[in-house]
Prior knowledge:
This protein folds into 2 domains: 4-250, no CATH class; 259-400, no CATH class. Helix 2 crosses helix 4 (71-83), helix 16 (325-337) crosses helix 17 and helix 18 (362-378) runs antiparallel to helix 19 (382-391). The protein has 19 helices and 6 strands. Strands 1-4 form a two-stranded antiparallel ribbon. The chain has a two-stranded parallel ribbon with strand order 2-3. Strands 5-6 form a two-stranded antiparallel ribbon. The protein is mainly α.
Amino acid sequence: MLPESLFNMLNGMVDLPWWGYVLVILGFTHVTIASVTIYLHRHQAHRALDLHPAAAHFFRLWLWCTTGMVTKAWTAIHRKHHARCETEEDPHSPQILGLPKVLWEGAELYRKEARNPETLEQYGAGTPDDWIERHLYTPYSQIGIFVTLAADIALFGVIGVAVWAVQMMWIPFFAAGVINGLGHFWGYRNYESADASTNILPWGILIGGEELHNNHHAFPSSARLSSKPWEFDIGWFYIRLLSTLGLATVKKVAPAPVIDPAKQAVDMETVRAILLNRLHVLSYYARDVVVPVLREELRKADESCRRLLLRAHRPLVRGEAVMDAAAQGRVQAALDSSQTLATVYEYKKRLQVLWQTRSTSQDGLLHHLQEWCKQAEETRIKVLQDFARSLRGYTLRAADQ
């Protein structure tokens, strides 16, 4: 007979069927990923929302217990990622380091950057610096994970070790590996951001909404990561729930274009509205101009030309930031085969000059847009003409002026 104390340790205080342990693991890890996306990411790194002190400290305590991550280090590394995205200074770019490196060694890359004092000093401003942070969470960042180990064993006995192991692997794999790796390598793109970010899935549930990574890079300071009607961000759902309970205040969400069909004059308000919504403008241009032209050209093309156009479809829609040399070659071959496609692609490049030229005066920007609309409307390409007319209606909300 085993002593009662040893028997209790082996079995724990809670006895569950196998599927009960699965649900417990999913529940614990989901709270962890919610803490990362709401507290570390949207609240600390990007200041997209304010959290009530009680909610903020719950998340901070939970992360100390389940990840051992320090708020200042995580925040600084993520801010540096945005500031130096897809460059040699990016702490975890798969475009630079390769996908296998980031996917399987993402946690090591995080720990390496966390030891860089320059990163912490330059990018870690505004993070918690109270007594408990200075005397417990930062200097003893690894103690919390052993507290969790003891709690899991007390609750579930020997099986608690397996529960704890999954908890410890969850963030290093899904956050440091999948989001930082696949989120800059594979998936679909709603917006032509200047980096290679992608949306892994349109339903942000398993990783708290972080699956919508391209949306985030397009609008980093937005508390909501979903953008299209079919996308779901469970992190945003939790934020709205916290807001209803008085535990969170949303500061900013991604802007939505305001188009007034009655507005016909291209003025400075038009310029400012287009600059504010430039990523939406490019998205609409791909949807309403490039794709329809591609379809029409495919309809008319012979077999050899069809192959060229089909191979260029994906890079044309996704944007230049994710074009490698081979994709650029496919695009150029398609443009050479279709004068209409080459024309709409040229007009897209000319439109982008509006926000890429920083030294141009306001009058210069206005003249550029007026000329672009005038010349686009003079082409015989109906979808381009319609798009140019739609740009005239861009306006600002009162809050944006």
